[in-house]
Amino acid sequence: MVIVRPCREKDLALLRAHIPTPGQPDRHATRFERQQNGHSTFLIAWMDDLPVGAGEIFWRGCSAPEINQHYPDCPELNGLDVWPPELRSQGIGTTIIAAAEDITRHHGHHWIGLGVEDGNSRAAALYLRLGYQETGRRYLDRYTYTDSDGTRHDIADPARFLVKSLDRTAS
Ligand SMILES: CC(C)(COP(=O)(O)OP(=O)(O)OC[C@H]1O[C@@H](n2cnc3c(N)ncnc32)[C@H](O)[C@@H]1OP(=O)(O)O)[C@@H](O)C(=O)NCCC(=O)NCCS
Hints:
Blueprint: E1 2-6, H1 12-18, H2 27-36, E2 40-47, E3 50-58, H3 65-68, E4 76-82, H4 92-106, E5 111-117, H5 121-129, E6 133-146, E7 152-165
Antiparallel strand pairs: 1-2, 2-3, 3-4, 5-7, 6-7
This protein binds coenzyme A.
């Protein structure tokens, strides 16, 4: 059985041990800090007391300005990941998404959005199956990572933004 709940500080050690963040060694702590500052809710999926996935709700919406200007009040589910890969396609991602939608609805929001990078057709197919809709809005998903030589890389991956209504009567 999978349980999804917001991250607690004491979870960070297990997260670091079980969910790698290559090139971004402080990623779990950074996400937890954003949650503690009220900017996000950092959701962790647990199976048999081990973390097996994560996702983060950005309450101020997508950080890309080309999206945020059109969807300023639409929280974004960001950085969805199930780990290890052998646990994928067993419904864990769907469970995290459902939890994120419930929490966002309870915060009084009517919409949730997420970005999907070009080439991640499997994730896109999952989101569309779960009721997310194309907005036609594209953007560059920007992030940095540091490789094993210590060289920092600034990445800008082309992506598109999808949204889903959280109004149950609309679906
Ligand atoms: C994308 C991702 C988060 C989805 O999580 P997931 O746990 O694999 O997703 P789910 O299992 O809920 O659903 C995905 C698939 O499993 C199937 N599925 C769902 N519940 C299932 C179940 N109980 N039993 C068997 N299959 C199931 C779905 O039909 C879907 O089929 P597909 O494999 O053909 O796409 C995960 O695959 C992942 O971490 N990928 C790498 C990182 C990534 O791409 N993140 C998304 C960034 S936008």
